[in-house]
Design a protein that fits this description.
This protein has 27 helices and no strands. By secondary structure, it is mostly helical. The protein is elongated. The chain starts with 10 loop residues before the first helix and ends in a 14-residue tail after the last helix.
Length: 628
């Protein structure tokens, strides 16, 4: 028996759409949990000693003072799973699920307060589902270092949603609580990423729309500038001044901007349109887009892009009286892009994780507009209603499939960089990064081959060894391509030399040794105090059994950097195994132990601690601590 119109709907029905959105977001990103670390993750997480002790809050929060909350979450992930990327991806997945639900809740709140639910509330559900499964957001979710965009969006959505409810909350206590939630989310977001700098303007826009828009809404907004908007604007002014001061006095010193401010503005006119295209037709997704700098406004197709942007903003303004939700979504897209697509020149002109927050506006517009169309077809009993519903479902399923496929690409470092190089073959940076990925793969396979040999599995050991040799050859090819673009790129010379040295140790003989030495000497010519080049030249001398030359090179490193970890370990081994000088050997092992402890690499330090303890060089004591 159906409920009468006066019977309230079961409470679970209010949560069912949110649950559907959450489930969709979780399912399409399940295959992201096995992805490895990539690219900037090595600096952000793996080599970041400041996140390794969760109880050391000063080190965590001050690692990047303007992003303390972000690094606190990295420390939390490290506490849970250590250097295993699974815990980091699980956090990102949970954040995306939450964001998709918040997008649904925001769209529903906007429709209720600004423009009516329309079509039985299908607009918010469609918008939430679109955000949950859209492949343009894979970089923000699956790339660990893009957690800044992911988490900042969480705080941004929480801030706007709380403020939306604050305007018509019943009672001063509830209003005070909701305003406090909005302000707290704003502060936490600012300490996650600078994206929250635009939130006060979105709140002003929302307040204006809730007041009816137009001149009357503007007059009402003017009366509320001191409160509730004043604290947001004050924090923005103070925080913005501090951030600009830090950038000018610390971050930019000795460096140059990747492009001029005016060049960046005209470049971003094209980039904003490309972002829109990626949302409408998400093909050509790429880790590095290598977007060219636009030198002049009149460079085609910049004038057409500018015209399109003006038309979209104009359309949003005209929609305010009739369709305020659509107007809000369009303007959200442009306002949210301001930090990354205006006058501030970032190293990468176009990066897909910058699209995550602006994509909220697109999804709300697309979801509500689709629901309005479906509603009109249903009301008119059109024969197109069922095909239209089927088409909407097919689009969402297709996007979900594309997201899963993109996550598969992210699921392997070699696969990701092969895809990136294929899409941007002219970028030296992609070839260099691909070479690094191949070199790391070779190192892992060599270690695995030795483990298998120690267990007596010689067949598997040979296969891993062969894969390692192939990866080294492929890495050398990628470094060579990089050097064709950038002949003095020191890191490419160093790493190509290391690959040649590894091949020499794998049976390549004198030609590989000579090639390694040539690259390392060239790197040393470019930077005479390059300790990595000196140390590896010492390793080459060790391969040649020229122990005096090896000793000389390691000592040169230590003259520049007395605490150098690799040189101390290598020199300690040389003293112990070749010169039988135990005292000197253990002295250098102890320095290496101190370096590991300083870097909080406690697992590696434990191995050296046992050697030193057995030799009586350090007193018997507990092993170094693990991450708390």
């Amino acid at each position: 028996m159906k409920n009468s119109s006066n019977t309230p709907a079961p409470r679970w029905r209010g949560f069912a759409p949110a649950a559907v959105v959450a489930l969709a977001a979780a399912l399409v990103y399940l295959n992201s949990l096995d992805a490895p670390f990539h690219y900037d993750d090595y600096e952000t997480v793996i080599n970041n000693k400041n996140i390794r002790i969760f109880s050391d809050l000063p080190s965590i929060l001050l690692h990047s003072p303007f992003r303390g909350v972000l690094f606190l979450t990295f420390a939390l992930s490290y506490r849970v799973s250590g250097a295993d990327p699974f815990g980091f991806h699980l956090f990102n997945l949970a954040a995306h699920v939450l964001n998709a639900v918040l997008v649904f809740a925001l769209a529903r709140g906007l429709c209720r307060r600004l423009g009516g639910m329309g079509s039985g509330g299908w607009g918010p559900l469609l918008g939430g589902l679109l955000f949950a499964v859209h492949p343009a957001f894979t970089e923000a979710v699956t790339y660990v270092s893009s957690r800044s965009s992911l988490l900042a969006t969480t705080f941004y959505l929480a801030c706007v949603l709380a403020f939306l409810r604050y305007r018509d909350a019943a009672g001063p206590a509830m209003r005070a609580a909701l305003w406090t939630v909005a302000f707290a989310a704003f502060l936490l977001g600012l300490l996650t990423k600078e994206l929250l700098a635009t939130a006060p303007f979105v709140l002003l826009l929302l307040d204006w729309l809730q007041s009816g828009g137009g001149a009357a809404g503007a007059r009402g907004l003017a009366r509320r500038l001191a409160f509730p908007h004043g604290p947001f604007l004050l924090v923005l002014a103070l925080g913005g001044a501090a951030r600009i001061h830090t950038f000018a006095t610390r971050e930019l010193v000795g460096g140059t901007l990747p492009r001029g401010v005016c060049e960046n503005v005209v470049t971003q006119m094209q980039v904003v349109v490309v972002y829109l295209r990626l949302l409408v037709a998400p093909f050509g997704l790429n880790l590095i887009h290598d977007f060219p700098t636009v030198r002049s406004f009149w460079e085609f197709p910049t004038p057409l892009c500018a015209l399109l942007l003006v038309l979209l903003v104009g359309a949003a303004v005209r929609l305010v009286p009739r369709e305020p939700v659509l107007a809000f979504g369009i303007l959200w897209y442009f306002v949210a892009l301001l930090p990354s697509s205006s006058f501030i020149p970032f190293q990468e002109a176009l990066a897909e994780h910058h699209l995550y927050l602006p994509g909220v506006g697109f999804c709300i517009v697309a979801g509500v507009a689709a629901a309005r169309v479906l509603g009109r077809l249903a009301e008119g009993e059109s024969a197109w209603f069922r095909p239209a519903v089927a088409a909407a479902g097919a689009i969402l399923l297709t996007l979900a499939g594309l997201t899963a496929a993109r996550n598969h690409v992210w699921g392997d470092e070699i696969r990701l960089w092969r895809d990136t190089v294929a899409k941007t073959p002219g970028s030296w940076a992609t070839h260099y990064a691909f070479g690094d990925a191949l070199r790391r793969n070779a190192e892992v396979r060599q270690s695995r081959a030795m483990e298998l040999r120690a267990r007596g599995d010689h067949g598997s050991s040979r296969r891993e060894f062969q894969h390692s040799v192939k990866s080294l050859g492929d890495a050398i090819e990628q470094y060579t391509i990089t050097l064709a673009h950038r002949p003095d790129h020191v890191d490419s010379l160093l790493n190509r030399g290391i690959c040649h040295a590894m091949l020499a140790q794998s049976g390549g003989g004198e030609p590989e040794i000579a090639a390694a030495e040539s690259d390392l000497r060239r790197a040393l010519e470019i930077g005479p105090n390059n300790t990595k080049a000196l140390n590896n030249l010492g390793n080459i001398a060790t391969i040649r059994r020229d122990h005096e030359q090896a000793k000389k090179r390691y000592l040169e490193v230590l003259a520049i950097d007395p605490g150098n970890l690799n040189a101390n370990v290598n020199l300690g081994s040389l003293y112990l195994n070749q010169y039988k000088d135990r005292e000197s050997a253990y002295a250098h092992y102890y320095r290496a132990y101190q370096a590991l402890m300083g870097n909080r690499e406690y697992e590696r330090a434990k191995a050296l601690a046992r050697i030193l303890r057995e030799a009586g060089y350090i007193p018997a004591s507990p092993d170094p601590p693990s991450a708390e």
